[in-house]
Amino acid sequence: MRKVFLLIVLWSICLSIRAQEKVDFEIDFLKSKKGFYWEGGGVPVGPEITFSQSMLFSELPTAVQFYAVSKKGRINYLTPKIWVDDLEVHLQLEFLLKSAQWEIDKPYQHQNFSEKLEQATKNEKLELIGKNLDKLPAIYFLEAEKEKYPLEVVRDLFQKIPIETSNSIYAKKLEVYLTVKSITSPKSGDKIKNIELINSNNERQQLFKSDQKPKLLVLMNSESAYSLSTISLLSQFHELVKEEYEIVTVWSDKSFDRWQNYRADLKANIKWTNLLDIYGEAFNYFDEDLTPTFFVINPDGIIERKFRGFNKRIVSRLQALSEAVE
To answer: Is the pLDDT of residue 312 over 70?
Structure first.
């Protein structure tokens, strides 16, 4: 009981709502013969295009990155993490065959250190992180690659984070990760905790609204084409069972803006509870990183079954659920 109480206290302390930082980007594409992507979605194709876009981030500084996607769906990063620390950003980008040359008007003070971390081996990176916990990129890469290292190593480094970087979103994600790892993730037959996540009003709300209905919980991510494809399937399922089932989608996107605006044409079809798991509470609690992952939960909050992916079997399972309530 004490562990559960500590978990609730920790989450209530560290997961306060953050004001969104609006950043206005102006990007000059000196050469761009092939399509590629970044935090804001697709990039226009063509030579000497100036592209303007505003995006919301949970905090500054933050990192953005440009990438291409192969025909097989493999992601090829064209730039390192480019750190942004200003509300108005001007970038120049020249897209080459497998990389991009770039220049930013106001380079972040630790940009070179961030690139050094990206190029380091696993052990070199851990050593650099340990010696530079006062620099935000060190916390960023520790959080991003935390599962590569033993839990106690991550916990030890987290406890050494100084006050100047301890309030960053990456430190908060680490705190959630380490807290959740101290409890057992629920399996089929277990009752789940009704945690709180962020809604479209940037407010925290409980995962489920009703204790009377069975639930379909789906873990999603905007970078997953399968997750985006699942929206259409869930929309059909919702029309069939909206009176009988409570549907909740939870997204692990790393920014509020990407969650709200990336493929907004598809997300406009979401008519059910839709939440952002920016700190990783739900994904770490359920010990899942594959998307989409479906949980069928009975009115008592007990997991009845779990299935993953987007294929014909998923369609059949959702169809069976809808037929069972007719």
So the answer is: yes
Q: What's phi and psi for 55, nearest 5 deg?
A: -140, 150
Name the pTM for this structure: 0.79
Pairing of strands 293-297, 215-220: antiparallel
Question: Does residue 76 contact residue 68 with C-beta atoms inside 8 Å?
Answer: yes
- Name the domain count of the chain: 3
User: For the segment 164-203, what is each residue's pLDDT rounded down to a tens digit?
Assistant: 999 999 999 999 999 988 888 999 999 998 889 999 998 9
CATH label of the domain that carries residue 255:
3.40.30.10
What is the spatial distance between Cα 216 and Cα 295, in angstroms, rounded to a whole number? Answer: 6
Give the model's pLDDT for residue 165: 92
Helix (H) or strand (E) holding 218: strand 215-220
Q: Does residue 302 carry a pLDDT above 50?
A: yes
Q: Which residue has the tokens 């770039």?
A: 102
Whether residues 89 and 117 share a domain: the answer is no
Same domain, 214 and 316: yes
Structural domain boundaries, residue 60: 21-107
Answer yes or no: is 3 within a domain. Answer: no
Question: Which of 170-173's residues contact partners 24+ apart within 8 Å by CB, and which partners?
Answer: 170/136, 170/139, 170/140, 170/142, 170/143, 170/144, 171/139, 171/143, 172/14, 172/15, 172/279, 173/143, 173/279, 173/280
Beta strand pairing call for 36-38 and 273-276: unpaired
